Amino acid sequence: MTDSRFVRAHTRLSPVPLVPEILLYQAEEAIALWERTETSSSGQQPPPFWGFAWAGGQALARYVLDNPSLVSGRRVLDLAAGSGLVAIAAAKAGAAAVTAVDIDPLSLAAVAANAAANAVTVTGVERDVLDTAPDADVVLAGDVFYSREMATRMMTYFERAARAGAMVLVGDPGRAYLPRTGLRKLASYEVPVVATLEDAAIKHTAVWEIPVK
Questions:
Q1: Hey, which end of the chain has fewer CB within 10 Å, N or C?
Q2: Could you report how far apart the first and last alpha carbons of the chain are, in Å?
Q3: Region of 144 on the Ramachandran plot (φ > 0 left; ψ -120 to 50 alpha; else beta)
Q4: For residue 173, which of 66, 58, 39 has the smallest C-alpha distance?
Q5: What is the pLDDT of residue 74?
Q6: Alpha helices of the chain — where are they, by DSSP H?
Q7: What is the C-alpha separation between 63 and 89, in angstroms, rounded?
Q8: For residue 39, with 0-12 CB atoms within 10 Å meaning exposed, 13-18 middle and 19 or more buried, which class applies?
């Protein structure tokens, strides 16, 4: 089974709770989906982040759609794109070009399927870009502060992008490794989520800007 067929076979196309104007192929249960990814491949697979509309991504997508001038006519990078929710929001808001980056090939298959379902164009890139020079006018990322190592690498990349002139916006529901300094809050939302993933049905979630240092 191809990655694209796998995504469609184990998810259901449905509206995103906080961003109902966007449809995503979403799973109902994380463990079952992860087990299916393991069974369908020959090696250990990363968690299927691409199968869900996470709180940070929902908040950031909502903010972008409500403030289209932030991305309109600009080159946008959705980092650790997962389902591509944020990338799709940027495309719908009028971005000149949108690139979705992730290291999971199933994520890129989900991005392609979700972009097609929403009739927008998103370029998928399967690559770890965190040690490269940012090449975008706007960098967007949702739910990336889930480990100490990843948070450190992400902040290094974000600060490099901001110094290069990019606007950097991050959506986060208060993950353990969200930096406590160096961010400026732009908005907050009460985001409906899958309770079995988040131990809550609603997550208070903020959109942050990484300012130039």
A1: C
A2: 47
A3: alpha
A4: 58
A5: 98
A6: 3-9, 30-39, 55-66, 85-92, 105-117, 148-163, 195-198
A7: 9
A8: exposed
* Total number of domains in the chain: 1
Please give the structure tokens belonging to residue 129: 């870009």
Tens of pLDDT, residues 63-105: 999 999 999 999 999 999 999 999 999 999 999 999 999 999 9
Measured distance CA(117)–CA(130) in Å, rounded: 29
In this prediction the pTM is 0.93
How many CB atoms are closer than 10 A to CB 118?
18
Q: List per-block mean pLDDT (blocks of 10 residues) for the chain, which spans 213 residues.
A: 80 96 87 61 66 95 98 98 97 98 94 97 97 96 94 96 97 93 95 85 96 84
3-state secondary structure of 93: coil
Residue recorded with tokens 């104007």: 21
User: Residue 205 and residue 176: Cα distance in Å, rounded?
Assistant: 13
DSSP state of 51: G
Domain that holds residue 28: 3-209
> What is the pLDDT at residue 9?
81
- Which residue, among 102, 60, 55, 106, has the nearest Cα to 81 in the 3D structure? 102
Task: Say which CATH number the domain at 154 has.
Answer: 3.40.50.150
Distance CA 161, CA 112 (A): 25
